[in-house]
Amino acid sequence: MSAALPQVKPASLGKATVNKSSVLDSPRWVELRKLEWTDEDGKDRLWEVASRKTTSKGGIDAVAIAALLKHPSRPLSIPIILQFRPPAGGICVELPAGLIDESETPEVAAVRELLEETGYGGEAFEGRIKVVESGGTTPSDPGMTTANMKLVTIEVQLKEGEEEPKAQLDEGEHIEVRVTPLKELYAHLQAYEKLGYHVDARLHHYAAGIDIAHRYLS
Amino acid sequence: MSAALPQVKPASLGKATVNKSSVLDSPRWVELRKLEWTDEDGKDRLWEVASRKTTSKGGIDAVAIAALLKHPSRPLSIPIILQFRPPAGGICVELPAGLIDESETPEVAAVRELLEETGYGGEAFEGRIKVVESGGTTPSDPGMTTANMKLVTIEVQLKEGEEEPKAQLDEGEHIEVRVTPLKELYAHLQAYEKLGYHVDARLHHYAAGIDIAHRYLS
To answer: Would you put residue B196 in left (φ > 0), alpha (ψ -120 to 50) or beta?
Structure first.
């Protein structure tokens, strides 16, 4: 259905593997809960749900960041990240994202995670980082989990000739950043899929929205 | 940050409530697994993950449907649904979606779910329903679960004067359909949030992509 896909460079993350999967009895981070609920007809019913044990004080688990990189002479771009995710058993393509630390606001967490995972932020970008939108609190998969998140949009003003910044990763964290033209995001994600990577559903929907707007609404 | 929000009608779903949440020992639908994995540095590590026990033979849990309603004289629209979701403890706003039945392809499941949840499909729409895109297999929340899904885009050709079809819900299923102009989807979701509803993260990202395309790329 698509034209030729863009050339994307495979990850050079090194090799990681899942060796064994077993049923877990004493979870530390995640738990299963039984919800007893009453439906619209007054009938008592049960629902099984997975929850994080670490939800922030504000009741929001995580933020994802759509960072719009505004360059004087290049097309508007967005940094996406590649990382091995054990639940997917392979490399995932995602927006920069992370859990909200205790007592952080979602916006502060978004600015911090963007700096840590991509390098955009900190002193070098003083006055050139602006949170332009903070979305509602959205459940990630409300049929199955209580996990929720906020999508925060941040504008980053770049300068001509400026080098791509370095991420500030923790030891043992392996992430690769790919700055991608926003207009071609959907085609790039398709190209990463061809390499066998798993595109996060939320990033896929974001790119599909951009693509649909071009094809049906312009 | 936004202009006046559109008027959206509150759901008339009736009242449903979550009465109790307790730790679950013998789950039927969901389970917690421990993954033993080796990271890129060769270090053995653990990851906790929630999985559905019901993943389809094809290895894909679910489909969501972006149904583009093409009307001769009205703007391009998309049906979204309102339903009470116990994990969110309230009414969620989502794309039509559902689990893939055994031996169904994702595209067949998408056409079936669209008919069941919104009424678009079946004999009355013979020859006017077309699957135009079937996205990759995308993990819904790859830091926490193995759940995955496909976004399927379906074009529906409407006729002038045609009435909105009736959903074909199972007994005990309570869903309301809202046909929403695609161009205004993001503003409508913000209006539903003001009513206290929870917008699914994937639908939010889809609408945010459409909105970003308008504001930054046109």
So the answer is: left
Q: Which residues of A touch B149 (CB under 8 A)?
A: 201
Q: Which domain holds residue B154?
A: 55-181
pLDDT digits (tens, 9 = 90+) for A190-217: 999 999 999 999 999 999 999 999 999 9
Q: Give domain status of residue B72, yes or no.
A: yes
Residue A68 in contact with residue A153, Cβ under 8 Å? yes
- How many helical (H) and strand (E) elements, i.e. helices and strands, does chain A have? 3, 12
The structural domain count of chain B equals 1
Note whether residue B131 is domain-resident: yes
Burial of residue A186 (CB within 10 Å: 0-12, 13-18, 19+) is buried
For A101-142, what is each residue's pLDDT tens digit?
988 999 999 999 999 999 999 999 999 999 999 999 999 999
- Single out the residue of B113, B112, B100, B106 nearest to residue B133, CA to CA: B106
Q: Which of B55, B141, B62, B37 is nearest to A50 (CA)?
A: B141
For residues B63 and B110, is the Cβ–Cβ distance under 8 A?
Answer: yes
- Rounded CA separation A89/B213 (Å): 32
- In a domain, residue B11? The reply is no
Residue B59 within a domain: yes
First CA to last CA distance, chain B:
20
pLDDT of residue A31: 93
Check CB contact under 8 Å for B145 and A50.
yes
Number of other residues whose CB lies within 10 A of the CB of residue B10:
12
Cβ contact A148:A60 at 8 Å: yes
Q: Which residues of B touch A141 (CB under 8 A)?
A: 140-141, 145, 147, 201
- Radius of gyration in angstroms for the set of CA atoms belonging to chain B, rounded to a whole number: 19
Contact across the interface for B149 and A201, Cβ inside 8 Å: yes
φ and ψ of A207, to 5 deg? -65, -35
Q: Which of B215, B87, B84, B207 is nearest to B147 (CA)?
A: B87
Q: What is the mean pLDDT of residues B18-42?
A: 92
- Which of A8, A15, A49 to mutate to test binding with chain B, by most B CBs within 10 Å of its CB? A49
CATH number at residue A161: 3.90.79.10
In contact, A6 and A183? CB cutoff 8 Å: no
Rounded Cα distance, A186 and A215, in Å:
12
Strand B77-85 versus strand A77-85 pairing type: unpaired
